[in-house]
Write a structure and sequence with these properties.
By secondary structure, this protein is of the alpha/beta class. 50% of the residues lie in helices and 7% in strands. It has helices spanning 22-34, 53-60, 62-65, 88-102, 124-133, 135-150, 155-165, 182-193, 199-223, and strands at residues 4-8, 39-41, 69-71, 174-177. It has a 4-stranded parallel β-sheet with strand order 3-2-1-4, covered by helices on one side. α1 (22-34) runs parallel beside α8, α2 runs parallel beside α4 and α6 (135-150) packs antiparallel against α9 (199-223).
């Protein structure tokens, strides 16, 4: 089975997005229902400049959002190292505040959860630049883009359909999608519903990786943080 599609709400109430109030969020939720998406990803810090407002908007549209499964995260103070935010008292306080904003009566907690924070000297940003800015990768993507366009498709659609239908992800896994425009939700869902890629495009996508694996693969290993 394909992995579950989850809609990321970090953009709710974020500037330059469609989702500024309960009316616009309600419209988005209806689009999600139409697209067959019934799970939301949120957090106490969402959106970054208005912490908690994303959860409030979900709560204010509870007549519709009440039918969605909502995943949220405890509040963390980005000005510190986060250690004080993960005490039992702080976690309980954050959960209760989230439930109030979401207008939900209770929460289910995972059996275990890992919180990772990065210091200012973390090399993740530089690694990402090396990974996605590499000339051999850019050249391979340009070549793929030409072939994709000859099939009347886009690189975005290829990426979406590949990760859903051709990657190692499957039943029990989830893919968080996020967009600033309501219409993009239905477009993404429609891409997924098209099913696996044509054989030649799937093979070409694999060839792109093969052509850059030697130069790029070690960067991926450097930036991926394994769960304990």
């Amino acid at each position: 089975m394909a992995p579950e599609l989850i809609f990321g709400t970090a953009i709710f109430a974020m500037d330059m997005t469609d989702f500024q109030d309960a009316i616009s969020v309600r419209t988005a939720l209806k689009s999600l229902q139409k697209a067959g998406i019934g799970r939301l990803d949120s957090g106490a810090r969402y959106p970054p400049l208005k912490p908690g407002r994303a959860e409030e908007l979900i709560g204010e549209t509870n007549d519709i959002s009440g039918s969605f499964l909502v995943d949220t995260k405890v509040y963390t103070d980005t000005k510190g190292d986060g250690s004080g935010d993960l005490t039992l008292g702080a976690i309980e306080k954050s959960i209760l505040a989230s439930l109030q904003r979401l207008q939900r009566p209770k929460a289910s907690l995972p059996k275990s959860q890992t919180s990772t924070r990065f210091g200012d000297d973390n090399p993740l940003g530089k690694m990402a630049q090396k990974l996605f800015g590499a000339e051999d990768l850019q050249a391979a993507v340009r070549k793929l883009d030409i072939e994709v366009k000859s099939h009347g498709l886009t690189l975005i659609e290829i990426a979406v359909r590949w990760i859903v239908h051709h990657s190692a992800l499957g039943d029990g896994d989830g893919i968080i999608i996020r967009t600033s425009k309501t219409e993009r939700v239905e477009e993404t869902a429609s891409m997924v519903k098209k099913g696996p890629l044509p054989k030649e495009l799937a093979e070409m996508a694999e060839q792109v990786w093969s052509s850059v694996e030697e130069s790029t693969g070690h960067h991926l290993k450097d930036i991926i943080i394994p769960s304990p």
